[in-house]
Design a protein that fits this description.
The structure holds two protein chains of two kinds.
Chain A (H helix, E strand, L loop, with lengths): L13 H26 L1 H18 L1 H4 L31 H37 L1 H16 L2 H12 L3 H28 L2 H8 L4 H9 L4 H24 L11 H8 L8 H28 L5
Chain B lengths: L4 E14 L2 E14 L3 E5 L6 H9 L6 E10 L2 E2 L5 H7 L4 E4 L13 H12 L4 H14 L5 H4 L9 H13 L5 E5 L7 H18 L2 E6 L2 H7 L2 E6 L2 E7 H6 L4 H9 L39 H5 L5 E3 L3 E3 L9 H10 L2 H4 L7 H4 L4 E16 L4 E17 L3 E5 L6 H8 L7 E6 L2 E2 L5 H8 L2 E4 L13 H11 L5 H14 L16 H13 L5 E5 L7 H18 L2 E6 L2 H7 L2 E6 L2 E7 H6 L4 H9 L39 H5 L4 E5 L2 E4 L5
Parallel strand pairs in B: 3-8, 3-9, 6-7, 7-8, 15-20, 15-21, 18-19, 19-20
Antiparallel strand pairs in B: 1-2, 1-4, 4-5, 9-10, 10-12, 11-12, 13-14, 13-16, 16-17, 21-22, 22-24, 23-24
Helix pairs in contact in B: 3-4, 4-6, 6-7, 17-18, 17-19, 18-19
Classes of the chains: A mainly alpha, B alpha/beta.
């Protein structure tokens, strides 16, 4: 057995300590990045695909070979050729260019909806689960009410109320998706609250904020990530539905969902009109799902 | 009369497919069992004892399979039998009882239906005959009033009754062999005594053979005729029960028997320990699998796996010491090593020096959990988890709190730490009422009192590093941060016998015993004066339990800590505690110093509790006081003395009047009407 070292509260020099803490943090995040690249090959690939999409969207005017809105009457529903690598649509617009411009709306809606509803839903959920009683009751009844209405109708209603704009589509879809996150995180918080490590932390003197931030949320990342990757694909599709009904993207402007829904009637004559936007959407959703899985595994210390 | 062998297992090997390829869960398990005999398979967690039981029944999960060996039962090799054929044997000729009676019964069917089910599968009975059999079986396992009880659902029965139903299901078709996998581990000692008695009686009536899988050497001594000791998937010793306890032939068995605290263990000496912990399946040591933990190990043990040496009177031991040609190798080890000198005696009790200075005083403490009903959450009653408890803890002493599950002992611990709010009464810490502490003051106070939990798995946040876990209290109280924090965490780790390099590891990289050490290190971070140990060693293997008990004693000596040691294990409490309080249904029924309590137990409940504990010595046949029934529902406690429903001495007065605490002698108080 080891001899007992003396315990005495140390009071180190603060300025040196802060500097070194910062440096340690930087080193740590560098190490973590290296570890992600090393252990999560699929995650790295998915992340690259997503980055590629984002770059395409950002530099769309420079990359796209044609104007996405301009109609070319000499080129209706052309099959893919060297000039139009993904063909043209029923109004003679270049599909490749429309996909690149469409990525702007679709990715914005998908990412923003997931991010905002995840943050709001998680906050509501953990508060609900941790404090319980009246607060829990109030939050959960509101969530029940939102979930009771069919999501598209609710989104339609909110978007109609706020007027047609991308911003309002995001707000509508966020409200629709918040209950999913709130439900899951509430259940997880209830479970984690009963764990001994939370009790140990309480008996050491920590308050609600610390327990939620240090013990609660890190231990519920796995289900949150699963819901987030599902929500991403759903909201891109939902944006299309809203646009189709005239509340999302105004018609000449492209979005992946709008392209898909517009092309469905030409499926037999011009399959490429459905194929390419569909393919791009699938790749984006898949990339997000795989990135989610990789992130989940990466954050789980047991799998390292 | 030579009894016929009914099952013989020969060279059984079972492998499991894991992420790291195939691993041996059990390897070369060989034993036989005769008609009417009880063979105990003993081992610590991960030793392969349950896998052995499951392999015999071919009930392994899909990742496991029998790689070689045979299981002969009535001239059939079960290991090679098809699934279709083995189904006829399961339940009819070989039956099994599992550990957890809560999850082994289907909550959607009545117990009558569940017993009936097995009869329908295996027996060709008319409905009337089957009905009769169900009633007969319920009577047999001691469930009275079968006609109405057969319509009960599992949730309406207590743990002990559920285990009786499990036994009824197992015995429904009069099997020749019963495999009981930890049948009483989940039960309280008084209920365990009932169930063990029932199993013995049924065995005498029907001549059933029993394979008893357990980790509890007390239960082994009580029940078994022969014992098979398994370690890391191999049989290390096989012997009759008397020989095993009087003269263990394998160092592991010897160490195991010595490491359990018993009623007669010297409290002032440290317990014998087995260092380290049971190796995981994919970190199997070379040579003899026990050598890294063995006090006698020499060169050959590290290199070559010993065979099973057959000794006189049908015993065998897997140890090189039994090889006559190697006797010289071990001779010097046996002579030079005085085992006792290896483990330093703990420093003198700080308690005796500063005795009689009260640290914590609890007076008439109560905790009632309301029972709410309906959408408006109306209060319809209360569970009196703690109902008027008074005691004090002196500086530097260990107060033991014992009782069966549901008696309110854990709630008491949490109330003292103010993890729960008191309903009524007061807790004074250093003379100040704890209820008066608020906000910052309470936070300061929390530094002085910490808790160590039972479950080493849920008590550490799996997403935090060990350094962060241990230093969390330092961060909360702004005692240290940054690199200073990590340095302190390292110091604390060294203090509990781990390495300071472990600060960057995560909890899952440690064994149960090591996690418990980490939990203790965290509790010590704020330099507390009082530690509440809530079943702190109950979830650990016996060899590791001794390590933790020694550590707690050592730390108490060094840091002048006071402990409130909550446990259901009387022998552990006897070993560690200076004084003991016995709780029953939210009340303390007897308080005494531990010597007095064990030599002169006065309350009928204490006496029954002490007599129910199985003693790891087959030569002692205790006069047992079997308590009828189970602990009553704390929401509806019996009137008067709460114990009167189970007390064999109960008189009229016990039913109406709550007994007062009477002083027997200095520090020995009893709450019972029968004491004058």
């Amino acid at each position: 057995m080891n001899p007992a070292p003396q315990i005495n509260p140390g009071l180190p020099n603060t300025s040196i300590k802060q500097l070194s803490t910062k440096r340690i943090r930087l080193r740590k995040s560098l190490d973590e990045t290296k570890r992600f690249i090393k252990t999560q090959k699929i995650g790295v690939i998915s992340l690259s695909i997503i980055m590629l999409f984002i770059l395409l969207a950002a530099f769309a005017p420079l990359i796209a070979p044609y104007d996405p809105i301009e109609q070319d009457r000499s080129a209706f529903m052309l099959a893919p050729t060297a000039a139009h690598i993904m063909g043209t649509d029923d109004l003679g617009r270049d599909i490749f260019s429309r996909i690149i411009f469409g990525a702007r709306v679709s990715l914005l809606v998908g990412i923003a909806t997931v991010a905002i509803s995840m943050i709001c839903g998680t906050i509501l959920g953990v508060i609900s689960g941790y404090f319980g009683k009246v607060i829990d009751m109030a939050i959960q009844r509101v969530m029940d009410a939102i979930m009771a209405i069919p999501p598209l109708i609710l989104a339609l209603f909110i978007a109609a109320l706020l007027g047609p704009a991308i911003k309002n589509v995001i707000i509508a879809l966020t409200i629709v998706n918040i209950p999913h996150f709130a439900r899951i995180t509430r259940g997880e918080m209830l479970r984690i609250k009963e764990m001994n490590y939370v009790e140990a932390s309480r008996s050491a003197g920590s308050g609600a904020l610390r327990i939620i931030a240090k013990h609660g949320i890190p231990n519920m990342m796995a289900p949150i990530i699963v819901i987030a990757s599902l929500t991403f694909g759903q909201s891109i599709i939902a944006e299309a539905s809203l646009s189709f009904l005239g509340i999302g993207t105004p018609p000449p402007n492209p979005s992946w969902g709008l392209m898909l829904s517009g092309a469905s009637s030409y499926m037999e004559n011009a399959p490429w009109m459905v194929l390419f936007p569909g393919l791009v959407l699938s790749i984006a959703v898949l990339a997000f799902n795989l990135l989610g899985d990789a992130l989940r595994d990466f954050l789980d210390p047991k799998l390292n | 009369m030579e009894k016929s062998t009914i099952l013989s297992v020969d060279g059984l090997k079972t492998v499991f497919q894991t992420r790291h390829g195939y691993v041996d869960a059990i390897n070369d398990i060989t034993f036989t069992i005769s008609q009417g005999e009880t063979v105990a398979i003993v081992g610590e967690s991960g030793s392969g004892k349950s896998v052995t039981a499951l392999s015999i029944m071919k009930l392994l999960e899909s990742s496991g399979q029998i790689a070689s060996g045979q299981v002969l039962f009535n001239d059939m090799n079960l290991a090679e039998l098809s699934d279709r054929k083995i189904r006829d044997i399961r339940g009819k000729q070989i039956a099994m009882i599992f550990q957890d009676p809560m999850s082994c019964l289907d909550p959607l069917y009545t117990i009558g239906d569940q017993i009936m089910e097995i009869l329908k599968i295996h027996e060709d009975l008319t409905p009337a005959e089957a009905d009769n059999r169900v009633l007969e079986l319920l009577k047999l396992v001691g469930i009275p009033d079968g006609e109405t009880r057969r319509n009960s659902y599992p949730h309406e029965l207590s743990g002990g009754q559920r285990q009786r139903v499990m036994i009824a299901i197992a015995l429904a078709c009069r099997p020749n062999l019963l495999i009981a996998d930890e049948p009483t581990t989940a039960l309280d000692v008084t209920v365990q005594a009932q169930i063990l008695g029932l199993l013995k009686q049924l065995q005498a009536d029907f001549g059933t053979s029993i394979i008893l899988v357990t980790h509890d050497l007390g239960v082994v001594a009580e029940m078994a005729d022969r014992v098979i000791v398994v370690y890391s998937g191999t049989v290390v010793e096989q012997s009759g029960v008397h020989e095993l306890f009087s003269k263990p032939e394998h160092p592991y068995t010897e160490a195991l028997i010595r490491s359990i605290p018993r009623a007669d263990t010297d409290r002032t000496a440290p317990l014998h320990i087995i260092r380290g912990s049971v190796p995981g399946l994919h970190e199997m040591p070379s040579g003899c699998r026990f050598h890294p933990r063995c006090d006698y190990a020499t060169e050959i043990c590290t290199q070559q796996e010993p065979p099973l040496f057959h000794l006189e009177s049908d015993r065998s031991s897997r140890c090189w010491m039994k090889d006559g040609s190697l006797a010289k190798e071990f001779q010097h080890r046996l002579n030079t090593d005085n085992l006792d000198s290896r483990h330093p005696a703990p420093p003198n009790d700080a308690y005796t020096a500063s005795k009689k200075e009260i640290l914590l005083e609890v007076h008439n403490m109560q905790k009632h959990f309301p029972i709410l009903k309906g959408i408006l959450s109306r209060k319809v009653g209360a569970v009196k988890a703690v109902d008027g408890v008074s005691f004090e803890i002196f500086k530097g002493e260990t107060l033991g709190l014992v009782g069966e599950s549901g008696c309110g002992k854990s709630t008491t611990g949490r109330l003292i730490l103010r993890l729960l709010d008191i309903t009524d009464g007061e807790v004074k810490y250093g003379g100040i009422n704890l209820a008066e502490f608020k906000g910052r003051q309470l936070k300061e106070q929390r530094k002085k009192m910490q808790i160590v939990f039972q479950d080493p798995y849920s008590s550490l946040n799996p997403r935090m590093t060990i350094g962060d876990i241990i230093s969390e209290p330092l961060e909360i109280h702004r005692i240290a941060s940054g690199s200073e924090k990590i340095r302190r965490a390292g110091e604390l780790l060294e203090m509990v016998g781990l390495s300071s390099k472990d600060v960057y590891k995560f909890p899952h990289q440690f064994s149960g015993g090591q996690r418990q050490r980490i939990g203790i290190a965290r509790a010590l971070a704020t330099e507390p004066e009082l530690l509440v140990c809530d079943e702190a060693v109950s979830a650990l293997d016996v060899s590791v339990q001794a390590q933790i008990l020694n550590l707690l004693k050592k730390l108490q000596g060094e840091l002048a800590l006071s402990y409130l040691f909550i446990s259901h294990d009387l022998n552990v409490v006897k070993y560690i505690a200076d004084r003991i309080c016995v709780m029953y249904l939210g009340k303390i029924v007897e308080t005494a110093d531990s010597e007095t309590l064990f030599t002169n137990p006065t309350h009928p409940y204490t006496r029954a509790l002490l007599s129910s504990v199985p003693v790891p010595d087959p030569t002692i046949k205790k006069e047992r006081i079997i308590l009828e029934g189970d602990v009553p529902n704390p929401a509806k406690p019996p009137s008067g003395c709460a114990f009167h429903t189970r007390c064999e001495h109960a008189k009229e007065i016990c039913k109406s009047k709550i007994p007062e605490f009477k002083q027997m002698s200095l520090g020995h108080k009893v709450a019972c009407h029968l004491i004058n």
